[in-house]
Amino acid sequence: MSALNAPRSLFPVLLALAMVGVIVWSADYAAEARALPVLVAWTTIVLLALEALVQTGTRAGRFIERMFSGEAKPETGSRAAPRVTSPGVLRELRGIAWPAALVAAIVIFGILPAVPAYVFLSLKIAGGKSSARAALTAIGVTVFVWALFEWGMSYQLFRGALFGDFQGF
Amino acid sequence: MIDALLQAAAHLFTAQALAYLALGTAIGLTFGAVPGLGGTTALALLIPLTFGMDETAAIILVGGIMGAVPFGGSVSAILLNTPGVAPNAATCFDGYPLARQGKAGMAIGAAAAASSLGGLIGVLAMILVIPLAKRIVLLFGPPEFFMLAVLGLSAIAVSTGGKLLRGLISGGLGLILAFIGYDDISGGLRYTAGIEYLWDGVQLVPALIGLFAIAEMIHLSISGGTVARTDKAVTVSHVFDGVKAVFANLGTLLRGSAIGTFIGAVPGVGGTVASFLSYTLAQQISKDPESFGKGNIQGVIAPEAANNAKDGGSLLPTLAFGIPGSAEMAVFLGVLILHGLEPGPTLLLEHEDVIFGLVLALSLSCVLASAIGLLVAGQLARLTRTDVHYLVPVVIAVALVGAYALRSSLGDVLEALAFGVIGYLMVRFDYPRVTMIIALVLGGIAERGYHQSLMMSDGSFGIFFTRPVSNVLLALIVISVALPGLRLLTRTMRKRQMEEGSR
C-alpha cells in the first residue's frame, strides 16, 4: 500500500468502526427504535468490508471492483485518481480551517464583525490580494449580507457571545 | 386540473412573481455557467432566503433557477469547452468545434432554442402524466413506500458513474444520520449524545448547504486557480442562424425531448445520461455520423433538448412520491418541506395549484433563460474565469450566514460546517454525496414505511413480498443493484464469443 493510498484505505476502516459504534450504542434503545438502524449499520459494514478489500488491490479486490462498476477496467477504486489528487495534508487542513475560523468568530464576535474580518484575512493571507482589494471586497460582502438579511428580510443576525447574545446552540 | 392551472397562472403573472422569476433565472444562468457551482449549490444557498417568502414566490424563484441552470452551463461548454454542469459535457463535442469555426453565436442560438423548446416539451409531458400519476400513487401503501425509498437509493447509487459500492455506503451513512433524534415509533430519543440541538434530528437545509456549497468551496480553495482555467477570448454573433437550425432539425429536437422526459422520470438516472443518450442517438441515426464531433449543429440540439426536458420528468417522482431523483431535486424537496409542503400523494392530490405553479415557472424560466442568455452569453463566459480566492470567502460567508438566518440557530451554522467537512472528505475519497443527501431525505419515509408495514402484518416480513406493486419494486431494486455485474457478464461473454469467432 503506497503512502498516497494509505488514507484512502483507512477511510472505510474508520467508517466501519463508526458503524460498530452505532450498533453498540443501539443496545440502549427499544427493539423497535433500533431495528432499522442496526440493519442499516450491519449492511453498511458489509459494504465497507468489500470496499476495504477493493482498496487492497488484490485479485479478489479487483473482482469486486469490476462487479460493482460493471467495467472490465474500472476507473474508480484503488488505482483511480481521487478528485483531489494528494493536495497535501497541511493545504487541506488550511482549507478546512478557514470556514472553521469563521464559525468560531461568528460565535464569539457575531456575524457582522466576523464576516468582514474573515473575507479580508482570507483574501490577504490565502489569496495574496492587496490590502485595498481585500478591504473593498470585505466591505462589499458585509454590506450585501446586512442589506439582504437584516434590512431586506428583517432577520436579526447574531451579535456574538462577547456581546451577550449567546443562548446556547 | 384546468382550474388549478389557471390559479397557478394567476399567481405567476404578477409583477412581483415575474421579478422573482427573472431573479431566479439570472442566478441560475450565473451558477450554471460557472463550473463547480451548478444548480444544487445555487438552490442550497438560496433556501434560507426563501424562508421569508410565501410558498408561491419561493417556488417561482426556485423554478427560475432550475430552468436556467442547464442553458447557463451550455454557454461555457460551447465557448470555453468547459461544461458548467455535468449534463452539458455532451454539448462540448460539437458546440466547441462550432465556436472554433467562428460559429459560436449559431451554436448558442441553437442551444437556447433547443433548451427552451425541450424544457417546454418536458413540462407539457409532466402536465399530461399528472392524472395517471394520481391513480398510480393511490396503489401505494406503507410496504410500497418502503420499497420505493430503497429503490430510490439503489437507483441513485447505480447512477454514480461506476461508484455503486461507495454510493451504497454513502447511502447507508446518510440513513444512519437520518435516524438521529426523536423516534416516532418508540417515542424516545436516539443517537443524540445528550446534545439538545439533535433532538429534532439532523436538519436538512444546513446539511444541504454544507454538503454542496461549503464542501465545494473547500475543494476549490484547496485546488486554487480560476474555475475554468482558460483565458480564451469569446465573441458571439449570428445567434438567429442557430434558432433557425433548431426548426430545421425538429426531429432531433423532439427525440431529444422525449429521451430527456423519460430519463428524467427515472430516479437517479439524471441529465448526464439523458444528454449523452440523446447525442448518441442523434449521431447513430444521422445520414452524416462522421460530422459529429467536428461541429454538427444536431450535436448541440440533441443534448440540450434532452437536458432541459428532463426537469419536467424528474418532478414526477419528487412531487408524487417524495422520492428525489437527483441532488438538485433533493434540495428542491428541502424548499417544499421548509414551506410546509410535504411531497408525496397529499401534495399531488390536494395542492395541484402548487405543482402547476412550479411547472409554469419552469416553463417560463426556460424561455426567459434562453432570451437573457443570448444577450449576456459573452459576460457569462467571462464569469468562469473568476479567481477562486474571491469566490470562496464570499460563498462561504453567505452560506453560513444563510444557515444561521433560517432559524436563528448557531447549531445550524455548526451543522453546515460539519457537513461541509464531511462533504469535502467524500469528494477527497471519491464517495458520491448525492446518495447521502437522498438517504437523509428518504430515511424518515423508509422507517415509517417499514414499521407501519410490520404493524399491518403483525410483524410478518411477508407483507413486503406478497403485494404486486411491492414485488415489482423489489424486482427493480434487485435489477438496479445487479445491473453493473450483469453488464460486466454480458461484455465478458460477448468478448469471448468474438475471440472464438476470430479463431
Order of helix and strand elements from N to C terminus of chain B: HHHHHHHHEEHHHHHHHHHHHH
Give the low-pLDDT segments of chain A. Answer: 75-84
Tell me about the biggest sheet of chain B?
Answer: 2 strands, antiparallel
Identify the most extensive interface between protein chains. Answer: A-B, 79 and 73 residues
Overall 3D geometry of chain B?
Answer: globular
Termini gap of chain A:
42 Å
Please tally the β strands of chain A and state the result.
Answer: 0
List keywords for this structure.
heterodimer, A: 169 residues, mainly alpha, 2 domains, 0% strand, extended, B: 503 residues, 2 strands, 76% helix, globular
What does it look like?
With 169 residues, chain A is an all-alpha fold. Chain A has two domains: 1-68; 96-169, no CATH class. Chain A is 69% helix and 0% strand. Chain A contains six helices and no strands. The longest helix of chain A has 26 residues, at 31-56. The radius of gyration of chain A is 23 Å and the shape is extended. Residues 75-84 of chain A have low confidence and may be disordered. Chain B has 503 residues and is mostly helical. Chain B contains 20 helices and two strands. Chain B has helices at residues 2-12, 15-33, 38-50, 55-80, 89-100, 104-137, 142-158, 164-178, 204-223, 239-248, 250-265, 270-285, 298-321, 327-338, 345-350, 352-383, 388-407, 410-428, 433-456, 468-502; strands at 181-182, 189-190. In chain B, strands 1-2 form a two-stranded antiparallel ribbon. In chain B, helix 2 (15-33) runs parallel beside helix 4. Chains A and B meet through helix 1, helix 2, helix 3, helix 4 and helix 5 of A and helix 8, helix 9, helix 17, helix 18 and helix 19 of B.
Quick structural gist:
The complex is a heterodimer of chains A (169) and B (503). Chain A has 169 residues and is mainly α. Chain A has helices at 6-26, 31-56, 59-69, 89-109, 111-126, 131-152.
